[in-house]
Design a protein that fits this description.
Blueprint (H helix, E strand, L loop, with lengths): L1 E12 L10 E18 L3 E5 L7 E6 L2 E4 L4 H19 L6 E8 L13 H16 L6 H15 L6 H8 L2 E5 L3 H18 L6 E5 L5 E7 L6 H12 L3 H23 L3 H22 L6 H11 L4 E4 L7 E7 L5 H9 L3 E3 L11
Parallel strand pairs: 3-6
Antiparallel strand pairs: 1-2, 2-6, 2-7, 3-4, 4-5, 7-8, 9-11, 9-12, 10-11
The protein binds (3R)-3-hydroxy-3-methyl-5-(phosphonooxy)pentanoic acid.
(3R)-3-hydroxy-3-methyl-5-(phosphonooxy)pentanoic acid binds next to helix 4 and helix 6.
Length: 359
């Protein structure tokens, strides 16, 4: 049996703007995981997961590719990962084989509600990692990220892939998304292997050092958010609000670059100032586009953290899920934890998953 696990992620800054190729963001990988176990099988493959229902999803191949007996959204990413690796394997002249995949996730709570820690991305990265071992592909980490990206944009064409990069590389990263149209053109023109070996317009991943004088705290609002709905709403707005949107992109870039500089210099005050700036920038986008990024629970989470001198903001698309807080390591956070408890905000005890491999 092959077992591969991939960490979840949190966006620290740059959300929404990062959807546009070349716009910077900062993310971390967290020490909660999706695990994929792969066992070889014969004649047909299957996907088992408690999160995706009791019955396994069974798949096989016909002359058109992978055929499935189910239509379930979370499974789409796994099937797309399988199909993308199958194309790679066929380009290499390797005979495709069958396998059973069992998925288990720590990125949902016991009742199956998602924490918003990037479970779709982590399952994609873990599936590709397992297939990399199964077929002895010896893909580099960057190639595995690119393969995960090709699989993801086949399902969600607008996804920035920041979550895939964090899950693949671990640690703290600065990330700018590739032009997804360019990546797909490379795949069509040069095949999957050619696309993996090419440079992708806009893509940039750089490792960042964690701030030594700040502690990360994560609050979970308990209400799951729909990233695709929020991103689609913004895309709908954008054409009627070009000026606001351009202003948002410029402001986001300013604060994310300030955050990256502060991290490079291990400047705790600079990190906190940049996070507060990123929160205000998302707030301005929210008022212009009426997206509902900062829900009342996320506002409370951040306001109570700011009241004790910390910096805080929603993480990811907002609309629910988690908020991140950066507080001085020696600060007393007991009053903040009490406030959160009174407001039904759950403190998730998370640490950063360590950086893996070179970039
Ligand atoms: O809600 P999350 O954690 O999946 O993050 C979404 C972040 C966006 O920038 C809004 C979308 C994206 O694809 O990066």
């Amino acid at each position: 049996m092959i077992t591969v696990r991939a960490p979840g992620k949190l966006f620290i800054a740059g959300e929404y703007a990062v959807v546009e190729p070349g716009n910077p963001s900062v993310l971390i990988a967290v020490d909660r995981y999706v695990r994929v176990d792969l066992t070889p099988s014969v004649g047909k493959g299957s996907i088992h997961s408690e999160q995706y229902g009791r019955q396994p999803v069974v798949w096989y191949r016909d002359s058109n590719g992978i055929v499935v007996d189910h239509d379930m959204q979370p499974v789409d990413y796994i099937l797309s990962s399988i199909a993308t690796v199958e194309q790679l394997v066929s380009e290499l002249g390797v005979t495709p084989r069958f396998y059973d995949l069992t998925v288990s996730s720590e990125l949902d709570d016991v009742s199956g509600r998602k924490f918003g820690l990037g479970s779709s991305a982590a399952v994609t990265v873990a599936t590709i990692g397992a297939l990399n071992e199964f077929y002895d592909l010896e893909l580099t980490r960057l190639e595995r990220y690119k393969l995960a990206m090709l699989a993801t944009i086949a399902v969600s064409p607008r996804a920035s892939g920041g979550d895939l990069a964090a899950s693949t590389f671990g640690g703290w990263i600065a990330y700018s998304a590739p032009d997804r149209g360019h990546a797909m053109t490379l795949r069509d023109e040069r095949g999957v292997i050619g696309a993996l070996r090419s440079d992708w317009d806009g893509l940039s991943v750089r490792r960042l050092a964690p701030p030594s004088a700040l502690r990360l705290m994560v609050g979970w609002t308990g209400s799951p958010a729909s990233t695709s709905r929020l991103v689609d709403n913004l895309q709908g707005r954008r054409w009627t609000d070009e000026v606001h949107y351009a202003d948002f992109l410029a402001r986001s870039r300013h604060h994310v670059e300030a955050l990256i500089t502060a991290l490079d210099e291990d400047d705790a005050e600079g990190v906190k100032t940049a996070i507060r700036g990123a929160r205000r920038t998302l707030g301005a986008l929210d008022s212009a586009a009426k997206l509902g990024i900062e829900t009342p629970a996320l506002a409370r989470l951040s306001d109570t953290a700011e009241a004790i001198g910390a910096a805080a903001k929603s993480s990811g698309a907002g609309g629910g899920d988690c908020g991140v807080v950066f507080v001085d390591v020696d600060a007393d956070v007991s009053a903040l934890l009490r406030e959160w408890e009174l407001s039904d905000i759950r403190h998730l005890a998370l640490s950063v998953h360590p950086a893996e491999g070179g970039l």
